[in-house]
Amino acid sequence: MYAFTFEAPSSTAAAAQLIAQGGKLLAGGQSLLPSMRLRLANPEKIVDLNGIAELAGIRREGNALVIGAMTRHMDVAASSEVKSAIPALADLAAHIGDRQVRARGTLGGSVANNDPAACYPSAVLGLGATVITNRREIQADDFFVGMYTTALEEGEIITAIRFPIPKRAAYMKFKQAASRFSLVGVFVAQTDSGVRVAVTGAASSVFRHAGLEAALNQSFTPQSAASVKIDASDLNADIHASAAYRANLISVQTQRAVQQMLE
């Protein structure tokens, strides 16, 4: 690693001031620290969010769960509140990476990083969540812009995410065995405004699948999902899977999610 200064503010306001001075945010460190070790990132100042108590925690607000940005994956997975209100979200968190990753990784860090194969972005998009920052609130449909790119502006910090509680939901993940990231992950939710289907791992960024949503709004069955042709032309192809294979996985994982929700 290259030399850097380390700052540990105790409030979001103080962290924002340090970012304005050129600091790089450190949440769980599951992406930043490996990048630094490989010398792919060279921040001159690191701003550690781990000491800011106001950024962690889980609470119920009406028909929504508000989860602090610095809440660890393991805490989301173990939360009785999450298990009761949105069990699919608890299950998703319980299968991110390995135990060490879940003990350090955070909700806000994952969503801000927007790795193309990360699990949390599919839940945020699939549930139609709202990303709350130190400046504003951003709807999920407007948040994820592209590969490792979001609507966050320079110096903007995610403070929490508000998840509307769905009628029911399920997440099905076909993982890449070595990294445990999603080769393809599909989050299906029945909400008050209809069915939402969010796909991760298959393209350059998480996305909603309009065809699957339309079919499942007509008939919420695995057969209805199976009838939708998945276009592979814009999907990823790499050493792990072809675009056609990922297209098939989108269909299969959606069918499995729907079946689970009906059981």
Automatic annotation (TrEMBL):
Keyword Flavoprotein belongs to the record: yes
EC number from the UniProt entry: 1.2.7.4
InterPro entries referenced in this protein's UniProt entry, alphabetically: CO_DH_flav_C, CO_DH_flav_C_dom_sf, Diverse_Substr_Oxidored, FAD-bd_PCMH, FAD-bd_PCMH-like_sf, FAD-bd_PCMH_sub1, FAD-bd_PCMH_sub2, Mopterin_DH_FAD-bd
FAD-binding PCMH-type domain segment(s): 1-168
UniProt GO MF annotations: anaerobic carbon-monoxide dehydrogenase activity; FAD binding
Enzyme class of the recorded protein, top EC level: oxidoreductase
SMART domains tied to this protein: CO_deh_flav_C
Alphabetic keyword roster: FAD, Flavoprotein, Oxidoreductase
PANTHER family: XANTHINE DEHYDROGENASE SUBUNIT C-RELATED
Name of this protein: Carbon-monoxide dehydrogenase medium subunit
Protein species of origin: Acidovorax delafieldii
